[in-house]
Amino acid sequence: MTAASPGPASAPPRPDWRLVVGFAALTILIHFLTNGAYGYFRDELYFMACGRHLASGYVDLPPMVALVARLSRATMGDSLFAIRFFPAIATRFPP
Length: 95
Hints:
Helices cover 59% and strands 0% of the residues. The protein is an all-alpha fold. Helix 1 (17-34) runs antiparallel to helix 4 (80-92), helix 2 (42-52) packs across helix 3 and helix 3 crosses helix 4 (80-92). 6% of the residues are buried.
């Protein structure tokens, strides 16, 4: 009596990248179209203030938050779109 050999291991299903990228682009578009619908949030103002005074560490936020705030203000100004641009891009594409 011989043991039945298992068939080839089935690979996990691969995601359809067009669908993933399409949903990510749609989400970013919605963010960009609606990010001026309400004013500044108090945390955004705090992040902008921390971006003016960069430090290697903060008690309540990682230093990258202040660095991104400074980068966005230096490259695009103080508009709502500029402040919310990099966070919208960073949250839509997983690593």
